[in-house]
Amino acid sequence: MPAAPVPPKPRRSRIQTRNRETILEAALQVFSTQGFRGATLDQIAEAAGLSKPNLLYYFPSKETIYNTLLTGLLANWLDPLRALRAEGDPVAEVLAYVRRKLDLARDYPRESRLFANEILQGAPRIMEAIEGDLRALVMDKAAVLSRWMDEGRIAKSDPVHLIFSVWSLTQHYADFDVQVRAVLGPGHDPFAEAGRFLETLFRRLLEPGVG
């Protein structure tokens, strides 16, 4: 006897969709400044302009909101690395990856700090994804970098640590934004200056015989 078909999930109304987005936006602000442990449902509800019971209608717990944010964040965080093309010019591909990661840090600083806070806590809620999808993607792209190195198209280095260096040298500008701006002082555009510096740095690292 065939299994009964699973009924489709009811579609959310525009108001429900808008309220969910409002809650997630408010939660992102609260979590990125207070961390998971310091954030409360009352703070999120207040930031969203909703009552706590109304918030709980959409998300049954703080953990559910946090995990929803992290799941979407991790997917977006991997997109720049996914876009590195094995058939492209090696130096241009890596430099484009650096630029995409720097743009992500510039445009989504709260998301970057949320991710950093989760990692600093030992990544209890996303360790499975880190050891699974993230690691698999890094190993796949590291193999591409290693092949380019073996072919003499970019200078030899450790391909995994090359990827790590892109992460650290771009996300720093989001995670330590206050420090960067305080040191640079007024009249500076940290991300524009970082873009020029990082292109020079990685070009010298990557080009065989240069540096």
Structure explained in plain terms:
The chain is mainly alpha-helical and 211 residues long. The chain has two domains: 8-60, Arc Repressor Mutant, subunit A (Orthogonal Bundle), CATH 1.10.10.60; 63-206, Tetracycline Repressor, domain 2. Helices cover 74% and strands 0% of the residues. It has ten helices and no strands. The longest helix is centred in the first third of the chain and has 25 residues, at 14-38. The protein is globular, with a radius of gyration of 21 Å. 22% of the residues are buried. The model has no long low-confidence stretch (mean pLDDT 91).
Q: Choose one word for the global shape.
A: globular
* Count of DSSP strands: 0
Return the CATH class of the largest domain: Mainly Alpha
Helical/strand content category: mainly alpha
Query: What is the alpha-carbon Rg in Å?
Result: 21 Å
Distance between the termini: 70 Å
| Number of individual domains | 2
- Under CATH, the homologous superfamily of the largest domain reads Tetracycline Repressor, domain 2
Instruction: State the major sheet.
Output: none
The count of helical stretches stands at: 10
* Element-by-element helix/strand order: HHHHHHHHHH
Instruction: Tell me roughly what share of residues is in helical segments.
Output: over 70%
